[in-house]
Design a protein that fits this description.
Shape: globular
Number of domains: 2
CATH topology of the largest domain: Dehydroquinate synthase-like, alpha domain
CATH superfamily of the largest domain: Dehydroquinate synthase-like - alpha domain
CATH architecture of the largest domain: Up-down Bundle
CATH class of the largest domain: Mainly Alpha
Length: 397
């Protein structure tokens, strides 16, 4: 029997240039005082003050938590919750990358459901009370978190990235303004862009994919493949930035309604233990994992290969799948994506961590959605391959 297909999206999606200015109106429809969850970069760029201005113009007060400065951790959630309660805020606005959005998702749910964010991991506690409204405003084109019901928060005691997926974590409103991504430096544009591509690919090859997610994933792959290098080389190219913003949003909605797979399962433990940003760790792993998975999803990867190499519908699926893998490798090379070794991870430390990373990856459940599900031994070997993986030569996992 086929899995029942579900498609959940934010109630309202506002998109295109200058849509940021709509935050005041959307907030006014939902509350009287907003907690803005953001970071110091957004503060320095003036984006937080601009957000406050848009809110004031519509009669909405605001308080600010700008302490998000790494991948999201439980401490950020606790700190933001304290401000929300003390300032009596009745809605949340996230302004920034995926870390800000994920932190705000946790705050939105905990404000009405209580407890520690880790209580919700693995469905141990289900959020049942309607969360306070959350308006998500991304400033990078990568995580797609503004369109997902997933939050990933690191438990600082266990060094485990807690992947929590429940319907009530979905933001009520997503405002996607590509102008806000113009400030992303090239390395962030590259890492978050390949992260978005990995979302689209994994949503498409996942065992839980269905026609609605296929539609979103295919569109996202086309937008990202055709624009990511332009956005990386010329960050002021607004046309490319707009395409990347839309692709990231579509990829996020695609994987949120199907699933991510092996890349994300392996990536989260690396991020938790070695503090590598989520986007870059996904990018490091994607080519090797596609090689590992290829034989189990040739037809699906062939669709990706034909996106990379257009006007070649006559080539076989096998050849098109090879083109997909080699093209992703070349893309990572062109975007200067490092491997784990070149990032600076010590080999001895990495080897010592492999057993824990393997267990944590398997326990996350994501690898089981992959077309080819690795054994524990294969997963350990794949971590080793990824450590000093070369994007320039064809390898077999």
């Amino acid at each position: 029997m086929e899995n029942i297909a579900v498609l959940r999206t934010p109630q309202t999606i506002i998109y295109r240039q200058n849509s940021f200015r709509m935050v005041g109106k959307e907030a006014n429809n939902r509350g009287k005082k907003a907690l803005i969850v953001s970071d110091k970069v957004m503060e320095q760029l003036g984006n937080i003050e601009q957000c406050c201005k848009y809110l004031r113009e519509m009669g909405v007060d605001s308080s600010i938590y700008s302490g998000v400065n790494t991948e999201p951790i439980d401490c950020y959630v606790d700190e933001a919750m304290e401000i929300l309660k003390s300032e009596k805020c009745d809605l949340v606005i996230s302004l920034g990358g995926g870390s800000c959005i994920d932190t705000a998702k946790a705050v939105s749910v905990l404000a009405s459901n209580g407890g520690y964010i880790g209580d919700y991991m693995g469905g141990k506690k289900i959020a049942e009370n309607k969360p306070i409204p959350h308006i998500a405003i991304p400033t990078t084109s990568g995580t797609g978190s503004e369109g997902t019901d997933v939050t990933v928060i690191t438990n600082t005691n266990s060094d485990v990235k807690m992947m929590i997926k429940q319907p009530l974590f979905l933001p009520e409103v997503a405002i996607v303004d590509p102008i806000l991504t113009l400030s992303s430096p090239p390395q962030v544009t590259a890492a978050t862009g390949v992260d978005a591509l990995s979302h689209a690919i994994e949503a498409y090859i996942s065992k839980l994919a269905h026609p609605m997610t296929d539609m979103l994933a295919l569109s996202a792959m086309k937008l990202i493949v055709n624009n990511i290098e332009d956005a990386y080389i010329n960050g002021s190219n607004l046309k490319a930035r707009e395409a990347m913003s839309l692709g990231s949003l579509q990829a996020g909605m695609a994987f949120s309604n199907s699933s991510v797979c092996l890349v994300h399962g392996m990536s989260r433990p690396i991020g938790a233990l070695f503090h590598i940003p989520h986007g870059i760790s996904n990018a490091m792993l994607l080519p090797a994992v596609l090689e590992f998975s290829k034989e189990a999803c040739i037809e699906r990867l062939a669709d990706l290969g034909r996106i990379f190499k257009r006007n070649n519908d006559s080539i076989s699926n096998d050849d098109a799948a090879d083109i997909a893998v080699e093209s992703v490798k070349k893309l990572c090379l062109n975007l200067n994506i490092p491997n784990l070794k070149n990032w600076g991870i010590d080999k001895k430390d990495f080897d010592l961590a492999i057993r824990k990373m393997t267990r944590d990856a398997i326990n996350s459940g994501s690898p089981s959605n992959n077309p080819r599900v690795p054994t524990e031994k294969e997963l350990e070997e794949l971590y080793q391959i990824c450590y000093d993986y070369q994007f320039t030569s064809k390898q077999k996992a």
